[in-house]
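Q: I have 334 residues here and want to know how they pack in 3D. Can you give me a structure?
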Amino acid sequence: MNIDLTIVWAAIIFFAVFVYVVLDGFDLGIGILFPTLEVGQQRDTAMNSIAPLWDGNETWLVLGGGGMLAAFPLAYGVILSALYAPIVVMLLALIFRGVAFEFRWRDSAHRAAWDLAFSAGSFLAAMAQGVVLGALLQGVKVGGRAYAGGWWDWLTPFSLLTGVGVVLAYALIGATWLVLKTEGELQRQARRHAKRFGAATLAAIIVVSLATPFLTGNYFDRWLRYPNILLVAPVPLLVAIASYAFARSLQAGRELAPFLLTLFVFLLCFVGIGISIFPYVIPGAVTIWDAATERSSQVFLLVGTAVIVPLILAYTAWAYRVFRGKVTVDGYHS
C-alpha cells in the first residue's frame, strides 16, 4: 500500500501545533492574568505552577515550525515572508517573557519590572499568534512560488479579531489551570476568571465563526451550503454542549473538568480550522501537495520524527506526572 506521506506530515504538524497551543497556552494565559493577581504570594504561586513545565511546552513550537520548514518548505517560505512582522513579534515576546520568568526570582529589586515584562510578553505572544491565524485564514497573496502581497496585508480587522480571541482563550485555559493546581483564595479568584473568560471566549468563537464563511466562497460552501452543513453541524453543536458542561462544572466546584473541557473546545476549534482550509496549507493558493518536499525527504524526516516525538511525549508525560497535584508558594506539590 502506497501511503500518502504528505497527509501524514500534515497530520504531524497539525498535532504539534495543537499540543503547543494546549500546553504553552495555559502558561501564556497565566502571564495574561498576572496583573490581576496580588503581588507576592498569589503571583509566586501562579508562577510556581508552571515553573517546571513552561520551557518544555515550547518544544512543540520548535517541532511545528521545524517540521513545516522540512516537510513543506514552499509554505514555510511564503508564510514567513507574508507574516514576518507578527512572527518576529511573537518570537521576541517569547524570548523576553522567558528572560523575565528567570530574572524575577534573581533580581528581586526590580521584580515589578520583570512581572510587567512577563505579562506583556505573554500578551504579545498570544496576540501575535492569533493575528497569524487570522491572516492565514483570510488568505495570503501568492505569485508563482513566492509571496506577492504587501508588508501590512496581515493587519486587518479580522486578524485583530482572531488575535483578541486567542488572548481570551489563553486567559481561559490559564484560569482553569490555576483552578486545577491551586487552593484557597487564588483558586476562588481563578474560578471567577474562568467564568468571565469562558463567556468571553465563547463570544469570540461565535463572532469569528460567523465571520469566517464570508472571507471566501470556499469557506461559505464548506460551512453553509447543503449538504455540507449537515456534515459540519456536529462541530458547533459539540462546542455548545462542551460550553454548557464547562459552566456546570465550574458551578459544581469541579477542578479537573473545566480544564479538560477547555482543551476539548480548543480541539473542536482546530477541527473547524481544518474543515475550512484542507487541503490547503495556504488557503486558496497552495495545497499541502504543492508545498511538500519530495517523497525521499519525507521518508528520511519521518524516521527521525518516529524516534523523537515518542521521546518528547514520554518526557512531557513524566514531567507532568512528577509535578502533579497542588502547588504552594514554595513550589512544592502535594
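Q: Anything worth noting?
A: The chain is about 75% helix and 5% strand. The two ends are 50 Å apart (CA to CA).
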